[in-house]
Amino acid sequence: MLKKDEIYRVFVEESREILTALETDLLDLEKNILDEEIINRVFRAVHTLKGGSGMVEFSVLTDLAHEWENVLARLRAGEIKASPRLISLFLEAVDTLKRLIEQPPARVPEALRAEIARTIDQLRRYHGVETVSDAPARKAADGREKFGEKYLNIVMKFRPDIYLAGTDPLLLIKELTEQGEIVRLRCDTDALPPLDQMRPDTLYLSWELVLRTEKPFSAIENIFIFVRDENTILIDDVSHRFKDGVDMLYADKKLGEILEEEGLVDRHDLEEAIGEQKRAGEILLEKKKLDSQALDEVLRRQQRSKEIAQTSTLRVDTGKLDKLVNLVGEMVIGVARMSQTVQSGPLAHNRDINDTIDHLERISRDVQEQVMRVRMVPVEATFRRFQRVVRDIAGDLGKKINLYLSGIETEIDKTVVEHLDDPLKHLIRNAVDHGIESPEDRVKRGKPPDGTVWLRAYQQEGKIIIEVEDDGSGIDRERLLRKAKDSGIAVSAEMTDQELYALLFLPGFSTAKKVTELSGRGVGLDVVKRNIESLRGAIEVYSEKGSGTIFRLKLPLTLAIIDGMRVAVGSEILTIPLLSIIEAVRPSPDGIKTIEGKGELIEFRGEYLPLIRLYEILGFEGAITNPEEAIVIILESGIRRMALLVDDVIGQHQAVIKSLETNFRRIEGVSGATILGDGRVSIILDIHGIEHLAFGGHRTSEVVA
Amino acid sequence: MNGKTIMIVDDSATLRASVNFVLSEAEYTVIQAKDGMDGLAKLRDLQAAGTKLDMIITDINMPNLDGIGFITEIKKSDYRYVPILVLTTESENAKKMEGKAAGAAGWLVKPFKPEQLLWVVKKFVR
Predict the structure, then answer these.
(1) Contact A123, A129 (CB under 8 A)
(2) What is the mean pLDDT of residues A139-153?
(3) What ipTM was reported for this prediction?
C-alpha cells in the first residue's frame, strides 16, 4: 500500500498540473466565454481538485473548491456568464490554490487562510445574486453555441421525392463546405436501381460525411433547418474520435471494414476476397475492384490511427531518468574503451570480435539516443504559462497585447526547459514593458493599437531555437550609443549592431527611458545571458528601430551530451564545443601582430581577432608556443570572434559530460569533463569562461579596422 | 442582373416592395404578385414566354387564393420543382408545417432583415 505522504505527494503533483491547465483554460474562456467545452473542462478540473483534496483531508482546499464548483455549475447551466470579473476571480483562486498546495495542510499560514476565506466569500456572491443581465448572451448559450475546431459526423438520408420540395441536396453539401472542410465524404449508392428503372425526379443517394469546422454547432444545424423534419439528418460531434486530425476509429478496424464503410468496395466483393484468405487490399486491387491510390490513402490513415492509439504514457521520476542517462553514458564510454583496447591488442584483426564490437557500439548509441529522447519534453507547458504573464503585465500597463505561440510541440531536454522559465519571463516582460509602445503611440506610428509578442520554438541544425519577438519600438541605436558613452564604455559609431546590442547584456546597463515598477532597471538582461550560457546556449538580438526586436536563444538539444572537437595542448587533450567553432587554421608567419594595449591579434579573412594562448591562461606546460607551428581555432562566443592557440586538432567526438562541480568544484573556463576512449579525462572548455579569463568581465569588443 | 428570377406573392405592398428592393439590389429579377390567383396568372404568363423561374416566395394569409392553395396548384404545374419559400409570423408556427406539407422548401419568419432573406434565397438559388 502507498504511504500517506506518498499519496500526498501524488496529490500535490496532480494538483500542480491541474492548476496549470486550469489557468490556460480560464484564459481561453476569457476569449470564448460561451465555449461549453472549456467550461466543462474547468468544471471537471475543480471537481477533481475537490475530490483529491478530500482524499488527503486538505479541508481548506476542499472548502474553496466546493464553493468554486457551485459557481461553475451555474456557469455551466448558463445562469451566469464568464464575465472578465468572474474570470479574474477564478484566476485569483488558481493563484491562491497554487500557493496553498505547496503548504503542508496542517500548517497553512494565517495570511493564506485569510486569503482563502476572502476568495470563498467572493465566490459565494455568485451563488445567485449576480445573474445574467445580458439576455442575448444567454440566448446564445442556450442555442448550443460551441466554438473552436470540432469534427461533426453528418448523416443525410433524404426522402426520395426531395426534389419535389424544391431542395437540392448538393446545395446543402456545398453550404457545408462553406462552413468548414469536409474531411471525409461517402455517398451511398446501394439504392440506385438499374438505369431503365431510374426516375430522374427521384433521389436514390444518401451521404455520410465528416466536417471539420470552427463554426458554432448552431450554424451547421441551421443549414438543415428546412429539411431536418421530414428527412433523416443526424449531426454528431465526433471530435473526441479525432486526434491530431486523424480518425481514431480506424485504429481498431479491419481494412476491409474501412474500405466498405468508405464505399470503396461492396460487401460482396469484400467477402469474396476474405474467403480467399489473402490480404483483402491486395485481392481487391488484383481484381480491379479498387484503385491503388484510394487503397494507399486508407492504409495510411489506418496506420496513423493505430500509431496514435498506441501512444500511451507512463510517469517516471526524473531522478531515475538522470541515473539512467548517467549509466548509459558510462556504458558508451565502456564500449569505446573496450574497442580501443582490442584495437591495440593481439585481437585487433579478429573479425568476430570486431563485428561484435561494431554491433555493441551501434546498440549502445541507439540506447543512448532513446534515453535522451525520454528526457525531452515539449515546450508547451512553459510557453502557455506566459499567456498569463503577458495578460497580467499588459493589463497593469494599460496595454493590450496578444501573445502568439508557435512550435509548442518542439521538444527540449527537461533540465533545459526548467532553466528557461526565468530568462523567458525576463525577455517577455522586457518586450511587453519596454518593447511595445502605448496604444496611443502605436496609433501615432501607424501601427494597430494592440501590440503583438511572438514566442516561437523550433529546431535548427541540431539546436533548439527560441525566439521572443515584439512589434514594438525596436532598439534605438543612437540612444544606446549615448547611454554607453554616459556609462563610460568605449564605443564608436562604427560598431556593428551586434557589438552594440552586446552592451545590453552588461550588468546594470539599461536603455529604458523611464524605470517602471515592473521591469526595474535593465531588466537583468545580464542575468538572462548568464542563465542561457549556463545552459551552453547563446543569445542573439535583432532589432529594427520602429518595427520591433527579436531575442533569439540558441540552445543545445540536451545537456548530457556535447558535440566536441578534441584538441591537444601540451600533454592534455581538451574538448571544445563544436557549436562555437568556426574554423581551424594554421597561422601564416606574418598573420600575427602585437598591438599596444590590445595584445596579440591574428588576421582571419581580413579581420583581426584577439589571439588567446590557451596554455597560458590554463597554465599548461610543454605546449607549442610558436603560433606558426601550432593551430588556431577560430571561435564565436556570441559577442565576438576570437582565436584559440592549440597544439593540434585530434578530431570530433560526442562527449558524455561529467559535471566537475558535483565531483570537484567549479573552475572558470571549464564546463565539465569527459572520459576518452583510452580512459583519460578530457576537460570540456566553457567558451564564455575562457573569454572572461582572457578579456575580463566588462570589456566590450573593440573594432580594429 | 444575375439571370435568376424570383417571384414574390404577398398581399402587402410594403412587403412586396421590400422583397423587391432587397432582391433587385442583389441582382435578381423580381416578379410581383398580390395573391395566389395573381401568382398563378403570372406563372401562366411566364410559361407562355418560356421564362425560367428559380424561386417562389409566398405569404400564407392572402385573399382569393391563400398560400397553401397556391402551393398546391404549383405542385400540379410544370413549375413543381421550383423551390417555394413561405412567409409566416412568429404566432403561426403551425402554418410553417402546413406549407411544408403542401410542398414548400422552406420558410422565413416576418419581420426579417435583408440578410436573412438573402441567406434563405441563396440556400435554394445558386
Answers:
(1) no
(2) 56
(3) 0.73
